[in-house]
Design brief:
The chain has six helices and eight strands; from the N terminus they run E-E-H-E-H-E-H-E-H-E-H-E-H-E. With about 240 residues, the chain is an alpha/beta fold. It has a domain of about 100 residues: 3-Layer(aba) Sandwich (Rossmann fold).
Length: about 240
């Protein structure tokens, strides 16, 4: 039977977020003195590490009574966070409005519409902060207009970095506590700082390498056009 090797059955799609595979990348480095591993966050049900962030933020907001079933969640996103939120909001009976810009992938937009997400487009970048600043301005306008609305705020919600204590725990369990370097792509820097906090709190020797984009302002560079939507940022991170 095709299911003969399945050891457990999840009760819902939400239960499959996290515990992603860790794969040894044998054909990347010529130097056999190094072991290189990849954490396959694309194996999350909505396709990215933002599944973790979105689910944790929503569940914490529900648990605290900040939101309830039927309320409206609002977020600015270039793609992955929006899809993760769409999945979580549909499961928990929440409405979702996502503010996007022209860089949004058309396939991602189709996915969001399939989830029943309301999509708000901004078309003019702000002089300081680009499209991200324009999206955040629109988020504030929507919050003022819509009763019982909640900004999940991936850019400043402390549950973003807290999510990734669990990500680091998975890594350290898989590698028996032996991890020399961790490479993390930048965006909101929630993943980066969540992993860094875990390393600090557990007195680990792991060094973190932030992988930023040319044109990102996160580490003091000038704002320029970036090639990959969601990589780097046009405004400083609130987590750094």
């Amino acid at each position: 039977m095709i299911t003969q090797n399945i050891t457990s059955i999840s009760e819902s799609i939400i239960d499959t977020v996290g515990n992603t595979p860790l794969v040894k990348l044998n054909n990347v480095l010529d130097d056999s003195h190094f072991n290189l591993f990849g954490k396959l966050e694309a194996a999350n049900p909505a396709g990215s590490i933002k599944d973790r962030t979105s689910l944790y933020i929503i569940e914490q907001a529900l648990a605290s009574g900040t939101i309830k079933k039927g309320d409206t969640v609002i977020e600015s996103s270039s793609g992955n966070m929006a899809v993760g939120l769409a999945q979580a909001c549909l499961y928990y009976g929440l409405k979702l409005i996502v503010v996007v810009d022209p860089k949004l992938n058309s396939h991602t937009e189709k996915i969001l519409r399939t989830y029943g997400v309301r999509i708000e487009h901004v078309t003019v970048p702000k002089k300081n902060g680009g499209y991200l600043a324009a999206r955040l301005e629109r988020v504030q306008q929507l919050l003022d207009q819509i009763p019982n609305s909640y900004w999940s705020n991936q850019y400043g919600n402390q549950n973003n970095p807290l999510t990734h204590h669990e990500t680091m725990s998975e890594l350290m369990d898989s590698l028996h506590g032996k991890l020399d370097y961790l490479f993390v792509a930048t965006s909101t820097c929630g993943t980066l700082m969540g992993c860094a906090d875990y390393i600090h709190e557990n007195h680990l020797n792991t060094k973190i390498i932030a992988v930023d984009a040319v044109g990102s302002v996160l580490f003091g560079g000038p704002p320029l056009k970036r090639l990959i939507p969601g990589h780097g940022a046009g405004v400083p991170s609130q987590f750094l």
